[in-house]
Write a structure and sequence with these properties.
Order of helices and strands: HEEEEEEEEEEEE
Shape: elongated
Helix content: under 10%
CATH architecture of the domain at 66-199: Sandwich
Distance between the termini: 165 Å
CATH class of the domain at 66-199: Mainly Beta
Length: 203
């Protein structure tokens, strides 16, 4: 009986030893992750275009029509071989108008009035400029009239005339000014030269 008891105790001891020799399980570390709220997406900035309002440019008055103009002579000065006479244009209308460039001038005679000789040429030393005539306002041009006696008879057959036929710039209908000069009723001589229009009455 005694040996049997010893054998049982020995078996129980081996079991206890075997159980105690197993390694303890490794502790498990728990990592807690806190989710951070994501930043809201940036709202794109929309730029509002700046609109700059500008007042429209003032309208340029229409060109002066012959029927709304009066023409007359102003200051007249004689030099050796020529006469310089101011041609004045007056705005008879009740609204502004403009003149730009060179008038056309011819010497004329008779009733009905008829042009005599060669028409005027442009004095290129004077530049074109836009001239605005207010109601009752003036513009002017200077006409150079060469002495018909300066030309040989083959180029000029002299004739006294009493009119100037003046066509305003960019028009076709003339204005007539009573003015006595000597023209060339025949021949190629060019007696007349005219400047571009300028503001004012020319003195």
């Amino acid at each position: 009986m005694k040996p049997y008891l010893i054998a049982i105790l020995a078996a129980i001891g081996l079991t206890i030893c075997a159980c105690g020799s197993q390694p303890a399980p490794a502790p498990t570390n728990t990592v807690t992750v806190t989710a951070q709220p994501s930043a809201p997406a940036a709202t794109p900035q929309t730029s509002t275009p700046t609109v700059t309002s500008s007042s429209p440019a003032a309208a340029v008055p229409a060109g002066c029509l012959t029927r709304y103009l009066a023409a007359s002579t102003g200051l007249s000065q004689g030099t050796a071989g020529s006469v310089f006479v101011v041609i004045r244009f007056k705005n008879l209308n009740n609204v502004p108008c403009t003149l730009y460039g060179f008038p056309g001038v011819a010497q004329a005679k008779g009733l009905p009035i008829k042009n005599i000789g060669q028409p005027s040429t442009e004095d290129k030393s004077t530049a074109r400029e836009l001239v605005t005539l207010q109601p009752g306002g003036f513009a002017n041009s200077t006409l150079k009239i060469a002495d018909a006696g300066n030309f040989p008879m083959a180029d000029c057959t002299p004739l006294t005339v009493h009119w100037l036929a003046v066509i305003p710039p960019n028009q076709t209908v003339p204005l007539f000014i009573h003015y006595t000069t000597v023209a060339c009723k025949a021949g190629s001589a060019k007696l007349l030269q005219v400047t571009a229009v300028r503001p004012g009455n020319g003195g």
